Amino acid sequence: MGTRGRGRPAQLNRVDIERAVLTLGFDGATTTAIARHLGVDQSSLYRYIGSRRELLRSAVDRAIAEHPREFTHTTWRGYLTGVAELNWSLLAGHPGMAATLYTLEDTPPRSITGLMEESTRVLHGTYGWTISDALLVLDSLADMTADTVNRTERLLSSGPDAGTDRAARDLLDRSGLSPELTDALERILDGGLKQWWRRKVDLLLDGAELLAPRSDDG
């Protein structure tokens, strides 16, 4: 056993550690849990990472690098819809990532700024948007999506084994809202929280029409 124990750290690498974070979820990726998942001593991890914060940042980079990013588009609106769907699937597919991004706002992972630069180039170069207007709409979509995913995950964790809709309905029962508002929110839940998010995307893109180049048919 001693030989195997000495051999484990040599077989470990940073990519394994980053993927362990993605497997466990950002919200559950403590160094203790990662070490247990990989079958190594916790101290072995620090040969490859400087801090948990650094690890979370590099795990975000790993998640983005390995997430499918190709989709077809022929209009600026189609492109922004695709970007929004990509953001949703990325964040929803990695529990705790949305919340983690808020903690890294002072020094965001390079992959995040890289995605913003890439999307800005498409809007500017392909669809004629000004760079400042492209950044405005992309930042708004990213913020709204991260906030919605984060709040949805917090809602899910509000009760043991509670699904999103069940947790939301329990919250409604405790809210003391008027019957009119309660009925309206129940109809939103009936359509699903992701569908509600898509309506928010449509609302943002309707507003973006005011910024789009007039020569574009959108």
UniProtKB/TrEMBL annotation:
Pfam families, per the entry: TetR_N (PF00440)
Gene3D superfamilies associated with the record: Homeodomain-like, Tetracycline Repressor, domain 2
SUPFAM superfamilies, sorted: Homeodomain-like, Tetracyclin repressor-like, C-terminal domain
Translocase recorded as keyword: no
InterPro entries: Homeodomain-like_sf, HTH_TetR, Tet_transcr_reg_TetR-rel_C_sf
Keywords associated with the record: DNA-binding
UniProt domain HTH tetR-type: residue ranges: 25-58
Name this protein carries in UniProt: TetR/AcrR family transcriptional regulator
Organism: Corynebacterium antarcticum
